[in-house]
Amino acid sequence: MKKRIISAIIALIISLPLVYVGGIPFYILAILIALLGFKEILDLIIKDDYWVRLVSFICFLFLIGTSITKTSLDNLLDFKVLSVILLIYGALALIRHQSKFNIEKGFYLIGVTVFLSTAFSCLIILRNMSLKYFIYVLLIAIMTDTFAHSIGTLFGKSKINEISPNKSWEGCFGGTFFGVLISVLFYLFFINQDVNLFLIFFITLFLSIIGQLGDLFFSLIKRYYKVKDFSNLMPGHGGVLDRFDSVIFIALALVYFINFLM
Q1: pLDDT, tens only, 174-200
Q2: For burial by CB atoms within 10 Å, which of 86, 106, 201, 255 has the most?
């Protein structure tokens, strides 16, 4: 617990000023976090092929770089850029087919590259649009996760499923309740007090549930590859994807609701 608290404090001291300032300092932080998250998932399947990893990192950076200065979530993907990435991975599968890299891993790389680059791009663009909306999204994920863990530890008896044995329905409902309550109050007090209350409640509830599904989704990945954490970057917390699992799904879902919020 002590390591968990210390590493969380250090992460906040480093990240909060950069998030607040925005611009280039925030871009550097966001790209670094995204690259570390991408590395964690690459390490699960492609550990010793230097060239495949190098090309993958370049493609990932290329996708994020095309959207880093955008201020709107409309037309998020540039299909010209995406087509180039797909062609590169196709060529890579042909060139490296005699190594451990095969078609299956090629499709895996396409999926994780587009998936993670899109999610982290959404977060970066959201910060470009508004610091308050960025905080709103993080608040949903953090409060839902924090209260789900606390309430589940104290009162959890009904396990959800075998994917994440420590999660309970009691924790799920408790985390959703407090996560939605705190996030809605933040929105009303700091963003827009004239918003339709039913609308903001529904959107926040949906995003809280989506965030928990994201947590389970990444738990399923870890269970499939038989690892406890994606990395040991943050003692007591795991890696980037262990901390951003729910945020990633919330960021992707928010694309469909941002026009109702702004």
Answers
A1: 999 999 999 999 999 999 888 889 999
A2: 106
Quick one: DSSP state of residue 231?
-
- Give first-to-last CA distance, the chain, whole Å: 39
Rounded distance between C-alpha atoms, residue 128 and residue 262, angstroms = 13
Helix (H) / strand (E) containing 164:
none
Residue 141 has a CB neighbour count (10 Å cut-off) of: 27
Please enumerate in sequence order all residues whose Cβ is within 8 A of that of 220, keeping only pairs 6 or more positions apart, or say none. 163
Note the pLDDT of residue 3.
62
CA distance 39 to 260: 34
DSSP 229: S
At 121, list the tokens: 């791009």
Give the pLDDT means over successive 10-residue stretches in the chain (262 positions): 65 83 90 94 84 89 86 78 85 74 81 92 91 92 90 80 78 92 94 90 95 91 88 78 91 84 70
Which two structure tokens, joined as six digits, stand for 2? 């002590």
Structure tokens at 19: 């998030």
Read off the pTM.
0.89
Q: Give the DSSP per-residue string, 129-155.
A: H-HHHHHHHHHHHHHHHHHHHHHHHHH
Return d(Cα 189, Cα 183) in angstroms, integer.
10
Provide the 3-class DSSP secondary structure of residue 230.
coil
Between CA 229 and CA 238 the distance in angstroms is 5
